[in-house]
């Protein structure tokens, strides 16, 4: 036996539940993308929630929204990712540090690609809006942090899944509110960004574990071979 169960960034008990959540999230992303492809106005669901307009919040809430939005901007994102990676390394979880970078990159990259494919805009043709990259970013980072906490605390299936989904919901709702309040996105853009991260991050975590395990197996095989060849 190895230390894999404790070093895995996607704990085995959580894989079926998060896999199901990821599949459902991916379906939502696709359905919303088809519904709003090429649109430049809020849809029925958007106006039912709130009609996005620029400067729809006033101080002091506007300052909170701007500060939250900064976390998804390049400078703020680099600070958050660097802090997360540093925390993972201090906790001696290098695999989680790799996931922090990989998951964020995959979530933001997927959101960027989907924006070009869907072509939904807000406040002008130059502003592609679906899905929200800011929301995808913060949600992905929150998922990584929650997965790390789940493994660190050795939480079971129910507690671990609840923590991961709650962290994703809080992060997505926080950034989503800021994006809608500042008029940068429609509510369905935010939902699409949240679901993008929820779909991509568990898959990235699984791939990270699989790749790391294969590399560990190869190192173990080489060590064993070297030991057998060494003269006694």
From TrEMBL:
Residues 96-205 form the Phosphatidic acid phosphatase type 2/haloperoxidase domain. SUPFAM superfamilies: Acid phosphatase/Vanadium-dependent haloperoxidase. Coiled coil: none annotated. It holds the Pfam family PAP2. The keyword Membrane applies. InterPro entries: PAP2/HPO (IPR000326), PAP2/HPO_sf (IPR036938). Keywords: Membrane, Transmembrane, Transmembrane helix. The chain crosses the membrane at residues 17-38, 70-91, 96-114, 134-151, 163-184, 190-208. This is Phosphatase PAP2 family protein. It comes from Streptomyces galilaeus.
């Amino acid at each position: 036996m190895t230390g894999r169960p404790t070093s895995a960034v996607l704990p085995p008990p959580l894989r079926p539940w998060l896999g199901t959540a990821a599949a459902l999230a991916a379906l939502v992303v696709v359905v919303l993308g088809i519904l709003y492809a090429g649109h430049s106005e809020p849809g029925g669901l958007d106006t039912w929630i709130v009609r996005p307009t620029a400067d729809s919040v006033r101080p002091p809430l506007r300052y909170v929204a701007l500060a939250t939005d900064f976390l998804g901007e390049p400078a703020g994102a680099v600070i958050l990712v660097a802090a997360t990676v540093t925390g993972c390394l201090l906790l001696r979880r290098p695999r989680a540090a790799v996931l922090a970078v990989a998951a964020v990159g995959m979530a933001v990259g997927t959101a960027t690609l989907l924006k070009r494919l869907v072509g939904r805009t807000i406040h002008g043709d130059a502003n592609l809006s679906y899905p929200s990259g800011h929301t995808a970013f913060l949600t992905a980072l929150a998922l990584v942090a929650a997965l790390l906490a789940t493994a660190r605390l050795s939480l079971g299936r129910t507690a671990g899944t609840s923590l991961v989904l709650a962290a994703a919901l809080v992060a997505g709702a926080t950034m989503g509110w800021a994006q809608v309040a500042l008029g940068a996105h429609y509510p369905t853009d935010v939902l699409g960004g949240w679901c993008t991260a929820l779909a991509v991050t568990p898959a990235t975590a699984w791939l990270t574990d699989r790749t790391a395990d294969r590399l560990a197996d190869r190192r173990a095989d080489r060590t064993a071979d070297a030991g057998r060849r060494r003269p006694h």
